[in-house]
Amino acid sequence: MRVLIIEDEADLLASLAKALREEGYAVDTAADGEEGLYKAQSWDYDVILLDVMLPRLDGWTILHRLRESKKTPVLMLTARDAARDRVRGLDTGADDYMVKPFDLEELLARLRALIRRAAGQTRNVIDIGEVVMDIAARRVTRAGQPVALTAREYALVEFLALRRGEVVTRTALYEHLFDEDDNTLSNLLDVHVSNLRKKLGAEFITTHRGHGYSIT
Length: 216
Ligand code: CA
Hints:
Elements: E1 2-6, H1 10-22, E2 26-30, H2 33-42, E3 47-51, H3 59-66, E4 74-78, H4 83-92, E5 96-99, H5 104-118, E6 125-128, E7 131-134, E8 139-142, E9 145-146, H6 151-161, E10 168-169, H7 170-177, H8 189-200, E11 206-208, E12 212-214
Parallel strand pairs: 1-2, 1-3, 3-4, 4-5
Antiparallel strand pairs: 6-7, 7-8, 8-9, 10-12, 11-12
Helix pairs in contact: 2-3, 6-8
Calcium ion binds next to loops.
C-alpha cells in the first residue's frame, strides 16, 4: 500500500514516514501544500495523511481540490480539537481525522481500516484456502501455523488479497508497493512472488503472463 504524508513539521513527517515504512507501506512525502496537492492528484495513493495547517495551501483547500477528481481515502491531522474542525473535515470529504498529538498505534489501526473499507472489505480476516490473513493484526497463517513474511511480502499479499479474483497488473503493483525513493534492487517483484510461493504454497499466487498476478 502506498501512502502520501503531507506534513510541514519535519520531525513528525520523518517519524511518521519511518514508522509506516517499517509496517511495509511505500511512503511518499510532501512538506508543503502545493507539493502535496500535486502528488495527491498525480498518483493513486491507497491513503493520504493530510495536515491541516500547511504552508502555501492548507489542508482544507487540498482536500477540496482533490475531491473534484479523486476518492483517495484521506485522514486529516488536526492540531485543534475543535468540533467545528472535525465537522468541516468530514463535510469536505475527509474519511477520518486525528487530533495531534496522536497515538501512533491508533493512527496505524485507522489507516488499516481506511484501506480495508476502500477495498470494500468489511471483515478483518480473509480466508484463502489454507491461508488466513488477519489484516488488523497483520498476521498470516497457513494451515493454522504462523508464517513469517517480510514487510514487503506482506504488503504484496495484502494488496492482492484485497482485490481477490482480479488480475492486478505489474504496473499497479509497482505503483502501490514501492515509493518515489525506492531503488530498483528492492523492486524485484518476481523475487517477492517466488518467496511467497515458497512460504504460502506454489499455487497461492497465479501469474498471468504479460498481464500481472492474482490470488483466487
Ligand atoms: Ca502543520
